[in-house]
Amino acid sequence: MNTILVTTSRGLDELLKQEIETLCPGVETRLSPGAVIFDGTLEQAYTLCLWSRLANRVIWQLASGKCDSAEQLYQVADSVDWPQHLKPTQTLSVQFVGTNRAINNTQFGAVKIKDAIVDQFVAEGSQRPSVERRQPDLPVYARCQRENVTIGVDLSGNSLHQRAYRTQTGDAPLKEHIACAMLMRSGWTRHTNQPLADIMCGSGTIAIEAAYIARNIAPGIKRAYWGFTHWQQHNGEMWDNLVDAAIDAQQPAGAVIHASDMSRKMVSIAKSNADEAGVYNDIQFAVTDATKAAPPVKEKGFMVSNPPYGERLGELTSLVPLFADWGKHLKTAWKGWNITLLSSNRDLLRVLKLRASKDYAMNNGKLECRLVNYEMNAANCEQFSEDAQNHEFANRLRKNLKKLKSWIKQQDTNCYRIYDADLPDYNVAIDHYDDWLVVQEYAPPKDVSEDKARRRLQEVLLHLPVVTGVPASKIALKVRTKQKGTAQYEKFDKKGDKMQVWENGARLLVNLTDYLDTGLFLDHRDTRQIVRKEARNKDVLNLFSYTGSVSVAAALGGARSVCTVDMSKTYLDWAKDNFKLNKLAGPYAFIQADCTKWLAEHTGKYDLIFIDPPSFSNSKRMNETWDVQRDHMALLTNAAKCLNDTGTIIFSNNKRGFKLDKAAVEALGFSVEDISAQTIPQDFSRNKNIHKCWVFRR
Prior knowledge:
Layout: E1 2-7, H1 13-23, E2 30-32, E3 35-40, H2 42-51, E4 57-66, H3 70-78, E5 91-97, H4 106-123, E6 130-131, E7 138-145, E8 148-154, H5 176-186, E9 196-198, H6 205-214, H7 236-249, E10 257-261, H8 264-277, E11 283-287, E12 302-305, H9 316-333, E13 338-343, H10 346-350, E14 356-364, E15 367-375, H11 392-410, E16 415-420, E17 428-433, E18 436-442, H12 450-468, E19 475-480, E20 499-503, E21 506-510, H13 525-534, E22 539-543, H14 549-556, E23 561-566, H15 569-581, E24 588-592, H16 595-601, E25 606-611, E26 616-617, E27 626-627, H17 628-641, E28 643-653, H18 662-667, E29 671-674, E30 692-697
Parallel strand pairs: 5-6, 5-7, 9-10, 9-12, 10-11, 12-13, 18-19, 22-23, 22-25, 23-24, 25-28
Antiparallel strand pairs: 1-3, 1-4, 2-3, 4-8, 7-8, 13-15, 14-15, 16-17, 17-18, 20-21, 26-27, 28-30, 29-30
């Protein structure tokens, strides 16, 4: 008898315990986080390697002890007689899992154990075993928990979820042992004579594992590499007998297993994987949309699926309405079925409007998920009304659109704000760009829980298409938190898609998906018009230009010249594209530079300078940090030196609570006029402090 440690994913411990007690009758197991431990025989360890559908690794323990220091860890490893397990000409690897205060780096822990092993061979005057990470002759596994460490041979070699039948996978493949846990928790494994369907099958893992269960195929039967093959204590005859018995135990399938996906490519991958697994003929494949899919047979059965989670924020815009439609469809088409779904987004599952009968926690990789069972009985198949007429957010949005309707007709633009956190519970801003909507979720107040905020956001995404008529595919979602420096310009995505919009005779490029801001500050619409009127026959300087929309306005207003300065090459190129889009050619300069440093050293003269700096910046491309409250007078002093005798400065910023040093500005020889109220468009009237703006004249 020897101590055997069997590891698995979080949330599967109890299921694994039951499986071990079934496969190894009579053993006394004890649970540890993510593992089950028991005293057993080598045959039982081999049996688990071959037959466990839930385990990740089977560890044959060689030593355990304290590891409060590197020396103690070395001593525990050195207590093993390694030449009994490994020849000097063979290879080894050490996987170290877990840390504590003394061993706070897993690589350090692995190296310390490796040193203890090879030092024994050196002490005997023999060759040092070499390290091989991929498929070593002896994979050593160490598990550190608090002050204790367990060291043993990883008989599985690599994770047992790797069944050796995958030819390809999708973007987010479901691990095989998680698929088996889903099947077990669903209840289907106790009723394998009943139909099973996975209507979001991806690469086919759930269906293939179900076929393995139905046919009593050992999940490890196809694996070529094991951690014990070259182990000196390996019993080859015992292993061969277990493999032969496993082959003899296979049986014909008695279940109807159906796998479908809306992606033809994924169904093709699933078929290829099933063929490699040897269960192609046991599964019925189809290409169907889950929101329209009907049960594959008249008989009631089990649906087990791993739908998309919406881990990326932008995915929610399409997933929320999709889940709403799917929930309605399930209530009508799948009556009498048992449905099991795995998701890391419990709020997204709530959009289905189904009552769960069971709910389990389990990890899919590093994602903390919930496995939820639904019985499609009479109560669950009631249709819940989603009447947008009676929903407070939908009502407010509808009122806003009605109120803005006549104003929008008077505006020469197709970009405007339609909602700005009007209701505290729905803390978002919604902007209209041509036939798109951009939803910006503000960080919730401290007294609003994240769960509530997520549910409110999903309600917004559910009702937006209904009220506005804009499809979910044309709604971009972003989260706006308190930004520092150039954070508002940082990338969200890498699509690179730009679209044209128009405003007061100007055509401008916006990107609705890749950045927090779109390339056009809508709250400065009226400010751009002021610049345009002021710019005629003037030399104009636009500092902190972003994508150059103010520069375009100045050029269209008849500016004699326009100099556009920004630190970002990306945004200067964007500004150049905006000029090309408006067929503007002339004395227009585009300069990539730190605006504060460039202005301090610049000797040119201008008639009109527009300055809209960030509130704060600590960009690596700047020598020092920038704080608009602290540094605005130094900036304005340098700007004044570059201004002609009759020149004008328009200065704006969006720092909350900003206080202009009016006396210092006047001391530079300027009159000061606060034009903030004139620069706040009607669609931003709810937030009159969104920016401040002044005109300084000589």
